């Protein structure tokens, strides 16, 4: 009898992030107002939106549900900057930056997503955020392939 659990490599059959066919990333500039950020998040139905500095370097992300809760509770003003409410990315020796590119194997992405809500897909030099990948994207991929 075969084991039900599959190794990640078998589940994704050697596929890479590019095979997910993710839409281009949507991100916010650090100086964007939260009212505009919420409007854009609502239009696109995004739960998490990356925040980038003026050089397009990722600073953190907006958790849309948490921001809406703060807004409704009166803790956030419409013209406040998204940087006041973003979750900052932690980069240090104990939390090194993991580079996820279009060529990253899906098995590696799956492992990363075991510990993170989403992954920013960047170019190899991390100069451009190309897409945002989630566990749901992986599940959709597996469903489409029938694996």
TrEMBL record:
Keyword Repeat: no
Domain CBS: 21-81
This protein's UniProt keywords: CBS domain
Gene3D superfamilies tied to this protein: CBS-domain (3.10.580.10)
Superkingdom: Eukaryota
Record protein name field: CBS domain-containing protein
Organism: Boletus reticuloceps
């Amino acid at each position: 009898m075969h084991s039900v659990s599959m190794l990640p490599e078998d589940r994704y059959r050697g596929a890479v992030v590019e095979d997910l066919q993710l839409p281009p990333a949507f991100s916010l500039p650090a100086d964007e107002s939260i009212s505009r950020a919420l409007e854009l998040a609502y239009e696109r139905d995004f739960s998490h939106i990356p925040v980038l500095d003026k050089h397009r370097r990722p600073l953190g992300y907006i958790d849309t549900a948490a921001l809406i809760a703060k807004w409704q509770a009166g803790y956030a003003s419409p013209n406040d900057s998204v940087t006041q409410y973003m979750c900052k990315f932690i980069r240090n020796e104990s939390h090194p930056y993991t580079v996820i590119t279009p060529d990253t194997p899906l098995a590696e992405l799956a492992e990363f997503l075991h510990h993170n809500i989403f992954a920013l897909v960047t170019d190899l030099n991390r100069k451009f955020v190309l897409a945002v990948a989630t566990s749901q994207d992986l599940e959709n991929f597996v469903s489409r392939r029938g694996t």
